[in-house]
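Hi support team,

I submitted a single chain yesterday and got back a structure, but I'm not sure I'm reading the token output correctly. Could someone confirm the output below corresponds to the sequence I sent? I've pasted both exactly as they appear in my results page.

Thanks,
R.
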Amino acid sequence: MKYSNITKAKFINRPNRFIAEVEIEGKVEIVHVKNTGRCKEILIPGCEVWLHAPGTPGRKTKYDLVAARKQSGMLINIDSQAPNKVVKEWLEKQNYEKIIPEYTYGASRIDFYLERNILQEKTLMEVKGCTLEIDGMGYFPDAPTERGVKHIKELIKARKEGYRAVLAFVIQMDGIVEVRPNVDTHPEFGEALEKARKVGVEVLFLTCHVEPDSLEII
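Hi R., thanks for writing in. Yes, this is the structure output for that exact sequence:
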């Protein structure tokens, strides 16, 4: 997945979870933050950030903040829409005959419904983007996510009904190969994930290479 029109800037602050103030060539600009998570260990005043200008008519802000560099030097893609895009690109190389995004199942929209006829296999896959890194380990979520718990419960139900059920974590940074539940922030998510594993829901860790203008599953 590649962005066009990428601009480097300096992060100033984040008045709320939807917007941030950044500095571009000495000028302060209000930008949209494409991640409603906390990102508090990433978005620290003075850090380098990268902005995407989608050029959509009628927008209130010209730019979306899509990537940032932590104080450790690690570059992280924080675009919450990027994981589904890169997973779709990846799935198209995995010999599925049918790939349906945003599939309605039960009371939820599951990110992907997949079929591989040769294996008589029907799969429901939910995708989560991981941007939280602590001491070389990925964690999810970085803020409580009732929606995330709901999706796991739907995957448990699907598995019991005979589907192959998959929870895929897209690790939006280089060098991290595993994601653990952030039980300090949301214990219920960890409990749901453990129940899912026990009934056979598969958990995938999709490692990535990140550049300011791209995200790629490797």
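A quick pointer for reading it: The longest helix spans residues 146-160. Let us know if anything else looks off.

Best,
Support desk
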